[in-house]
From TrEMBL:
The keyword Transcription does not apply. This is Citrate transporter-like domain-containing protein. The chain crosses the membrane at residues 110-127, 139-159, 171-191, 203-221, 241-260. The keyword Heme does not apply. Keywords: Membrane, Transmembrane, Transmembrane helix. It comes from Desulfosarcina ovata subsp. ovata.
Amino acid sequence: MLNTLINDCAEQYWKETAQSISKRMEARVMADLKGKEIDPAQVRRAFEERNREIQLRRMRRSLPGLLPREERPPFIDPDWDRRDDPVPAWVTLVHIAFMGWTIINAHYPAFFIPGILFFLGFAQVSAPYQNRIDLKPPLLVGFFLGGLVIHGGLQGWWIEPVLSNLSKIPLMLGATVLTAFNDNAAITFLSTLVPDFSDGMKYSVVAGAVVGGGLTVIANAPNPAGLSILKSHFDEEVSPGGILLAAALPTIIMWLIFLFL
């Protein structure tokens, strides 16, 4: 009973306040248009509609609780993804089924893409049991890999003679150094442009790219994010040179392990 009374009072206050503001603004606008060949009725009607839209938008943004229930924006819980409610078994099984479908049809777009679309539809239908799906990161990765294939495929004319003249150790060392400044997927993809690459040479490229991961500062998006998290513990800045020195010894140890073991 008390909640209903409070809501009624809030709605009445909102209506009276909106009407008061609207009348003052309307009087000002009509005074500015006085003497012009414009139909006052049309101006008043257009003003009322636009004023209503502006008021509703601002109230939804700042004080949604004072709006009538039918005009309130949908509530979005900021802690929704942190809840620990149990997930029904059927939701988990459907997720596993979609994962299996994706793995089996990864190289068949005619089956893979509809599977993704059906999964998005399922996630929307079962939203009370799902976390929010953020499509931005996977789309960015997809565009990156697509650009890598398109543009990287044109680099064979100079990659092939360069890599063909390197032995295993220089190739592994070069991959280790380059992966500190380039994405390791780009390093390994470019090596596939060399025909008749032996298994030992392929191993050298992959091992070098893996070992050099600790040297990476700017090549991947998580690194700047990590720097932004850690900089408050280092006088608001993190030295790339310090990171390089700290990662040098572990990198050398791992490099020797991959080389000899």
